[in-house]
Please model this.
Amino acid sequence: MATHRVGIVVFENAEVLDFCGPFEVFSVTRLDEDQRRTTASPFEVVLVAESTRPVRANGGMTVVPDYAFADCPRLDILLVPGGWGTRAQIANTHTRAASSSMPEGRAWPAAAALLLAVAGCSSDSDVGSDSEPPPARENWQRALLHTDLELDLATMTGRAVISVADGEAPGASWAVGGLDIHAVRGADGPLTYRVRDGRLDVGVPDTGAPVVVTIDYRFAAQEAFEGWMAGAGLSFLWPAFCSNLFPCRPAPAEGQTYTLAINGVAEGDTAVYPATIPAPAPAYMPAVAVGPFTELDLGTTQAGTRLKAWYPAAAASAAATGTAHLVAVMDFYEQTYGPYRYGDVAGSVSAAWEAGFGGMEHHPFWHVAADAMDEPEVHAHEAAHGWFGNGVRMACWEDFVLSEGTVSYMAARALGRQGVDIWPEYDCRLQRICHDEQRNTVARPDGCNAITLDEHPLWSQVPYMKGARFFREVAALVGAGPLDAALADFHQRHVGDAARMEELIAELQAAFPSEAMAIAELADGWLRQRACPAIPDRDCPAG
Ligand SMILES: [Zn+2]
Model:
């Protein structure tokens, strides 16, 4: 017969009945009443305390603990009695440490513990068995390695098969804001889970190895740019709406690889999505576009990346204009900043968005608004996010300029080499920001994830244009080629991981020590304050 060890905590001013009563009940329990005198209790009851020194309970009764917390044997049940000292004990870190070394959920008030003991004895069930799934537990520390996502667009159902890294503690959490969770399973069967405040906590066991968790759910169609936009046939998850499409971690620093399968596509439509995203990506990156797409082969870079474009037949000439330089641009990025990591095939997908939306850096198949399909800058910009924003992720939303400023500069640089000068257009955007008190803001605010990006003034052209201009001025100081080499170095060091804008500024200062002061002045003035660069006087259209 398995014996369950019950630890009863005793402490100064503990209520006597609260620990003597349970002690008596556990010790006189028998599984077979007829054999009371020849068998022992299925419980071994021990008294535990801060130390083994005698403890004075309520009313002055002195008891001698069997064990101190530090050398307490493994317990199946921990019982904390009531009394005036209980609150102090809850704050007592040793008591909490003893509780946390217990099998999950085995610390109850006296009454609950008694109920459990009675239930366990009468059913002879295996109380405290290690094969039971652990209880649901909030844990954002356990990294996610890979999500295999299967979506059915007709039934609006999804299955996410997620590889969760080994961690210090059991449990794992996801944001599931708009999802209706149906089932959560591990390799050996159902896992315990709870959904609370838009969060899914799962009792993922701590096995010393990665654990695969399968989550079945239903998702809803979104009208706004907040998930699966059924009407437009597009997913849009940036910045933190991934939780309306799949269980995710929306923080920009979180990266993992993905595989995707899309079912339930209407007859005559094509779903454009990557079957695999082979390098770590933030959660806003996986995407699908559904429509009557024509697929155009644009060519192949020296490194072997095939570029394509997808668009409705009517947009053929716009797509041809916009993507005319895309192979050369991508080739420049690969040759200058490092290999492209999101697959052998990449390209632009026309997105049926409202006007003026630009694009979205879903890699390897990024989205370009239908009305921007003829703008080489938007294609070049979204492609560059393969290196910054996705390749090197933002550590915090406040590092938006690390993503947008850097790629705005890269796009201007790559297109400039093709004879397309987009700086006049950038100057106009800068003018609109800098000549308007309402629009001008700080490009690199302090803090980390203290802001909700799509509701903050930072969600503007400021990080794009002040950022691009910052890099252009650094290039004027050190040379565009040496700046490219420094950006390539930084990319190499941080690719697959998240970084802060401050790190990039510091690395540029280290790479160009004689210009370190000047770089610091540019960063302090244009990125950390509202100051604006001097803008050439241009005749700019209103916008
Ligand atoms: Zn961008």
In short: The chain has a mean pLDDT of 89. The longest strand covers residues 144-152.
